[in-house]
Every structure is written in structure tokens, then in C-alpha cells.
């Protein structure tokens, strides 16, 4: 009987691995968890790893806002009939003396008198110059009817299509004057 009991104990121990279960090792802290001081973290006096940023960077947020504004500008372009005068691709129309607003000949610093009915003595150097002109004069049959957001969106769309330098965040009244379009 003693042999049978001893056999059960030995077989039971073998079935359970035969070893005493070791305690689980602590997991490594994630980058967002503090690692504690050098003494508490196992000595060595090392400093904690910096936490890795979560979410998009400020540059990515600015670029996304710019993309959304350009998309809104495309919508305004379509809904307000900008293409009727300036062409589907902003190429202008020599017959109606409507200047190009997109492409190689778009938005010259000084207007070509043969191609512009409205732009007398108006100089385009910055995004603000372009936006002010659009806000005051467009659309042709309802000048000044665009909201501030609509005119800024259309300006952003046009400048984006023309790959204007410095247009890397949402266009607004504060930054428009600092964006040179050349």
C-alpha cells in the first residue's frame, strides 16, 4: 500500500512537470509606462526611456487640415461655378478674357490687361493677395458672396494646384500674408 501511494505521488509530480513552478518574470514596461528610478528599476542608475509620442505629429495634423481645406475648395469651385469661367482645370478662357488660375500662366504677379476684366493694378505676391481678390470679386455674377472659409478654401485649392511654396498648413487670415506664391 505504501508503494502504491508513493507511486501515485511520483506519477502526479511527473504529470505536473515534476518541478516546482517558478514565479513569472515581470514584463518589460511599455514606452508609456514609467520605468522608475535607477534604484527601483534594478540599479545601474540609468535613466528612463523617453515616452514615444502617441497619435499624429503636429506636422501631420497641419497637413491633414490643409488637405481637408483643399478638398473643401474643390467643392466650392464646383458648387459656385468657377469652372464656367476659368475652365474645368483652371486654364482660363481667352475668348471671354477669363485668366487662368491654375497652370503655368496662372496668377501672374501683374495681370495681363488682355486677359483680365477685373484685376486692374492688383498684384499677386502672397496668398493673402489672391484670397482678398477672390473674396471681393468672385464669383463674377455674385461678387463678395463667398464666406471667409469659402474664399480661403478656394484660394488653398488654387494654390495647391499650382504647387505654391510654403502652403503646408491650413490657410487662414493670419498666415496668408506670409505665404509667398512665387
CATH superfamily of the domain at 64-178: Cytochrome c-like domain
Distance between the first and last residues' Cα: 100 Å
Individual helix count:
5
The helix/strand class is mainly alpha
Walk me through what this model shows.
This protein has 182 residues and is an all-alpha fold. It has a domain at 64-178: Cytochrome c-like domain (Cytochrome Bc1 Complex, Chain D, domain 2). Helices cover 36% and strands 0% of the residues. It is built from 5 helices and no strands. It has helices at 2-15, 58-79, 82-86, 127-137, 148-161. The longest helix has 22 residues, at 58-79. It is elongated and about 70 Å long. It starts with a helix and ends in a 21-residue tail after the last helix. Mean pLDDT is 81; it is low at 1-16 and 33-43.
List keywords for this structure.
182 residues; elongated; 36% helix; single chain; mainly alpha; 0% strand; Cytochrome Bc1 Complex, Chain D, domain 2
Amino acid at each position: 500500500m505504501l508503494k502504491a501511494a508513493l507511486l501515485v505521488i511520483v506519477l502526479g509530480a511527473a504529470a505536473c512537470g515534476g518541478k516546482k513552478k517558478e514565479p513569472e518574470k515581470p514584463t518589460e514596461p511599455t514606452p508609456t509606462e514609467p520605468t522608475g528610478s535607477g534604484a527601483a528599476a534594478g540599479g545601474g542608475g540609468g535613466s528612463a526611456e523617453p515616452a514615444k509620442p502617441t497619435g499624429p505629429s503636429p506636422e501631420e495634423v497641419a497637413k491633414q487640415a490643409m488637405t481637408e481645406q483643399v478638398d473643401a475648395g474643390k467643392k466650392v469651385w464646383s458648387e459656385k461655378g468657377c469652372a464656367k469661367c476659368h475652365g474645368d482645370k483652371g486654364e482660363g478662357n481667352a475668348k471671354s478674357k477669363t485668366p487662368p488660375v491654375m497652370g503655368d500662366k496662372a496668377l501672374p504677379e501683374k495681370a495681363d490687361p488682355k486677359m483680365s476684366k477685373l484685376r486692374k493694378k492688383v498684384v499677386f505676391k502672397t496668398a493673402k493677395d489672391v484670397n482678398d481678390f477672390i473674396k471681393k470679386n468672385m464669383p463674377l455674377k455674385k461678387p463678395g458672396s463667398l464666406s471667409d472659409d469659402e474664399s480661403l478654401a478656394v484660394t488653398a485649392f488654387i494654390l495647391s494646384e499650382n504647387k505654391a511654396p510654403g502652403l503646408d498648413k491650413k490657410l487662414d487670415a493670419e498666415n496668408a500674408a506670409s505665404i509667398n506664391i512665387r
